[in-house]
Structures are given as structure tokens and as C-alpha cells.
């Protein structure tokens, strides 16, 4: 679900994906697939673009084993492709205490949307 800003159709409400508002700039998306349910907080700019995602406890593999740790991602530099605005930059990281440590930063160099 964290990669969905690059394929925004995946975020449309459906029988499997529901949205719950948190405040004027945040909403929780919940995806149910079989017996698995995941939720991710999405953060939005005033124009509706997704600026970030957040999980208070995403599972990760660390030197001392698997555990849940706060995790956050940011998106930006939106461009229009096939009539749809998608971010061309992104970054994600794990929180160590109150500090976000980035583990991935990327830039879209080309994009081909498939119908």
C-alpha cells in the first residue's frame, strides 16, 4: 500500500479498501485481503496530493530480529502522466527514537501507466 501513490487507482475505495478521516490533512486507509488487514496513515497537502505515509508499527528486520517500529515516507515533485498526477520523488525511513533515519530515497526517471 505504501507504493500506491505511484498507482493512485489502487487507492480508490472498494470492498477491500476503506478510508477513515483523521483530520483535515490525514486519513487512515485500511486494506483487507483474505485474513490479512493492514492500515496506513496517509498525509495530504491542501490540494489533495499525498505528501506522506506513516505507520506507528511497521514490521522490519533489524540486527536483533524482527520487530515493529514507527515508519514514515514522503512524496513530492508531482508530475502529470497520462492525465494523472503522480509523485516523482519519494523517501522512506524508520524512526530511531524521535529521529527519522532514511533507508530509501528514489526519483522516478520514467513512467508508463498501463491500463
Number of helices: 0
Number of strands: 7
Assembly state (oligomeric): single chain
Order of helices and strands: EEEEEEE
- Proportion of strand residues: over 45%
Low-confidence stretches: none
Count of distinct structural domains: 1
Q: In order across it, which strands form the biggest sheet?
A: 1-2-3-4-5-6-7
Could you tell me how far the N terminus lies from the C terminus, measured between alpha carbons in angstroms?
19 Å
Structural class label = mainly beta
Q: Which percent bin holds the helix content? A: under 10%
Shape: globular
Whole-number average pLDDT? 93
> Measured on Cα atoms, how large is the radius of gyration?
15 Å
How does the major sheet shape up?
7 strands, antiparallel
Protein name: DUF6544 family protein
InterPro entries: DUF6544
Structure, described:
It holds the Pfam family DUF6544. This is DUF6544 family protein. It comes from Azohydromonas lata. This protein is mainly beta. The chain has one domain (4-107). It is built from no helices and seven strands. It has strands spanning 17-23, 26-33, 36-44, 50-62, 65-81, 84-96, 99-107. Strands 1-2-3-4-5-6-7 form a seven-stranded antiparallel beta sheet, with no helix packed on it. Strand 5 and strand 6 form a beta hairpin.
What would a concise description of this structure say?
Pfam families: DUF6544. By secondary structure, the chain is mainly beta.
